[in-house]
Write a structure and sequence with these properties.
The protein has about 375 residues and is mainly alpha-helical. The protein starts with 9 loop residues before the first helix and ends in a 16-residue tail after the last helix. Helices cover about 70% and strands about 0% of the residues.
Length: about 375
Amino acid sequence: MRPERECVSNRQCFWLLFLILCGGTVTHNLTGTAGRDAWLSVLGGALAAAALYAVTLAARKRFPGLDFFAMLRRVFGRFGGGIVTAVLLAAALLSAGVVTANFALFLRVASMPRTPPVFWCLLMLASACFLVSNGLMPAARFAGAAAPVVLVCLVLSTVLSLPQARLSELLPVLGRGVLPVVRGALASFVMPFLEGFFLIALLPFGAEEERGYKKPVFLGLLVAAAVLLPVFMRNVIVLRYPVSSFFYYPSYEATGLITAGGFFEREEVITALVFLLCDAIRVAVITLFAARALASFFPRMRYAELWCAAAALGLSLLQLGSSMNAIALLENYQYAAVPLVAAPALVIWLASFRPGARMHEKRQPKA
């Protein structure tokens, strides 16, 4: 891969992470776990993600000039690095399959029940392969064009919901105790906040880079959390708890209740548009990470993205045997994702401090 295809500006990094995280507005129903305190769960998930991103950025910064998988071999050795890479490859394929299956399930439940789910899975994965066919740059350019649309749609749907809002639905805070909030925080951390790890792992850290991507990563996390919080609050105060807990896609149902003067209706298309644009970037970035991990084992392999997309397609179709089984698998996905991604990230960071692990390079003087 040529270096110029991997150059991602700070602004593009910000928009990429923003789209990845905003896919969580329609991904799952936190109100079923945390109830009225879903917004607290989102806040807890964002704080956990901040710790994960800080650990990953710190590890990347200690090895300037190396890509993520070369860094793993440097830290753990060839054999140990291969094991960690294989674990993260499995996590990426599982994550891509889950996101793709959730996208197909959403379209089956919400709008097109007669269309075979395999069509939507193929459409999503084909779009992902196209976006990353030349590296991260095409996806970054697409994110720069799509992200303002997503931001406007989310803000607009939230503002239009205010006439039907009842703020008293948010009270009492912690009415069900702390444990449901913690479980909801784990769910929001896994999907979508954990997926930002794959983007950080793909970002190029040159030997001359001093700050890396610290500012756009944390700014993207902050802005995405600031958008997600009112969205989940809106779902509770519009649909009313406990009715909001009965919907697996509460954002879609909440926007469907919006009316503006009797002539602007069917606003749930806003949610569908957000879901489509965000999931395209999510699957593309995760597929590219999986392809790079696979290529680290087989350097001469061609079309690694297609092989990873085919594996993700198989995993997604296995989940879509029935809607109930798919929902159950999506809800249990969190218990597999944390040990497969968060634990290796922490181990990488700790191992990077061992004597002799850090790569010392003499920097070339600037011309």
